[in-house]
Amino acid sequence: MNPISTPPGDDSLISYPTDFPIKIMGANVDGLADAIAAVVLQHAPDFDPATMELRPSSGRNYLSCTCTIRATSRAQLDDLYRALTRHPMVKVVL
C-alpha cells in the first residue's frame, strides 16, 4: 500500500506523490523560461529549473517548456495550472 495516496472523496486518478510533466507554451521571447520557472517554483519549491526542457517551434515563433515536478496533491496541480494559465506570457498549458 502506498503510504501517501489520493485523499477520500478526491476523484483524481493519480496517486501522490508522483513525478508529473507539465507542458507550457508561449511566444518565443526573452524571459519566458525564467518567468515560467518562477511560477512553477512558487507551487513546487523543490523543482529544479535546470531540468526544464525547452523546444522552439519549427518557425521559432513559439517556445514549449516542459517542467516535471514532484506533485504532492491534486490541489497543488490545480493551483499551478491556474497560475500558469493566468500568466500573460503563457498561451497554452497541457
**Spans where pLDDT lies below 50 across 5 or more residues:** 1-6
Roughly what percent helix?
Answer: 25-40%
The tally of beta strands, per DSSP, is: 4
- Average pLDDT confidence is 92
The biggest sheet amounts to: 4 strands, antiparallel
SSE order, one letter for each helix or strand: EHEEHE
Supply Rg.
Answer: 14 Å
The proportion of residues in beta strands is: 25-35%
Task: Report the principal-axis shape.
Answer: elongated
- Helix count equals 2
Features:
94 residues, alpha+beta, 4-stranded antiparallel beta sheet, elongated
Structure description:
Helix content is 27%, strand content 30%. α1 (32-43) packs antiparallel against α2. The termini are far apart. The chain has 94 residues and is an alpha+beta fold. The protein is elongated and about 40 Å long.
Q: What is this structure, in a nutshell?
A:
With 94 residues, this protein is α+β, with helices and mostly antiparallel strands. Helices cover 27% and strands 30% of the residues. A four-stranded antiparallel beta sheet has the order 2-3-1-4, covered by helices on one side.
Helices and strands, with pairings:
Blueprint: E1 18-27, H1 32-43, E2 53-56, E3 62-71, H2 74-86, E4 90-93
Antiparallel strand pairs: 1-3, 1-4, 2-3
Helix pairs in contact: 1-2
